[in-house]
Amino acid sequence: MAVGEYVSVSSQRDAEQADIDREKRELASTPEAELNELASIYEKRGLDKDLAMKVAEQLSAHDRLGAHVRDELGIEERSLARPLQAAWISAASFASFSLLPIAAFLFSPASWGIAAIAASSLACLAGLGALGGHLGGAPKVRAALRVTLGGGLAMAVTAAIGRLLGVSVG
Ligand SMILES: [Zn+2]
Fold first, then answer.
1. pTM over 0.70
2. Distance 68 CA to ligand 1 centre (A)
3. Rounded to the nearest whole angstrom, what is the distance from the C-alpha of residue 133 to the centroid of ligand 1?
4. What is the Å distance from ligand 1's center to 26 Cα?
5. Distance 17 CA to ligand 1 centre (A)
6. pLDDT value at position 41?
7. CA dist 101 to 70, 107, 155, Å?
8. Other Cβ atoms closer than 10 A to 169
């Protein structure tokens, strides 16, 4: 699971890095067109033509690549995907989740049943998945869904094996 997380966030980061590299090449080969492109982006955001060009020129003088990466590609330096961090969160959440259902089972009233424990575990998984997605710069809902479905599947498999082996947990 942690490996999968690393791969998916890594590939997102590679895609972002490829966009930035392409932008660097365009800035080197067609600087005039790139300046006009930046100005037209600011114009679309509501500045009038002259002001848009002025803003584009001043931001380009200050940090040309930064302005294009931020305003044309929509990539913030801070939100660049961080694969290792996402992998750590994923690994840590799964390690703790092998313990949580056991603790819930031991400390909750018997009438709650195994279903309530499974449901609460899945809810926590969704939260951790969203957190992992957030820190890794990935879409939160998709990250939460992926982790929750994976966790649910793992639970179903565990329950099925338990039944096959005749081990009763409920
Ligand atoms: Zn550009």
1. no
2. 5
3. 28
4. 7
5. 14
6. 96
7. 43, 10, 10
8. 12
Tokens of 16: 């972002």
Cα–ligand 1 centroid distance for 143 (angstroms): 30
Which positions ≥6 away from 100 have C-beta within 8 Å?
121, 124
State in Å: Cα 66 to ligand 1 middle.
Answer: 10
- What distance in angstroms lies between residue 62's CA and the mean position of ligand 1's atoms? 15
pLDDT in tens, the chain (170 residues): 566 777 777 788 888 889 999 999 999 999 999 999 999 999 999 999 999 999 999 999 999 999 999 999 988 766 666 777 777 776 776 666 666 666 666 677 766 666 767 777 777 777 777 777 777 777 778 877 887 788 788 878 877 777 777 765 54
133, amino acid identity: G
Tokens of 136: 């890794």
Give the Å distance between the CA of 91 and the centre of ligand 1: 38
Whole-number Å distance, alpha carbon 78 to ligand 1 midpoint, is: 19
